[in-house]
Design brief:
By secondary structure, this protein is mostly beta strands. Helices cover about 0% and strands about 60% of the residues. The chain contains no helices and six strands. It has a six-stranded antiparallel beta sheet, with no helix packed on it.
């Protein structure tokens, strides 16, 4: 089960604004005591259009399909 767990804005050098979502894959890890428990697993970054995003450094990202580097100073960046 995949959920958006963070959202922040990032900007290119020419001022284009991008919304970046962090998606977390939650894994069912229930036990007899807690059958509905889920555990956070792998995370993935994507733009609001669905383009994959690579993290280069804290606050610095690359949109894979265009190789465009964007930056963010949002406190929600990873």
């Amino acid at each position: 089960m995949e959920e958006i767990t963070k959202t922040f804005k990032a900007f290119s050098e020419d001022g284009q604004e991008f919304i970046i979502h962090e998606y977390t894959n939650f894994i069912k890890s229930g036990t007899f005591e807690n059958p509905n428990r889920v555990t956070p697993g792998m995370k993935e970054l994507r733009t609001s259009n669905g383009d994959k995003v690579n993290r280069l450094d804290k606050g610095k990202y690359e949109i894979v399909s265009t190789a465009l580097v964007v930056t963010s100073d949002s406190p929600d960046t990873i």
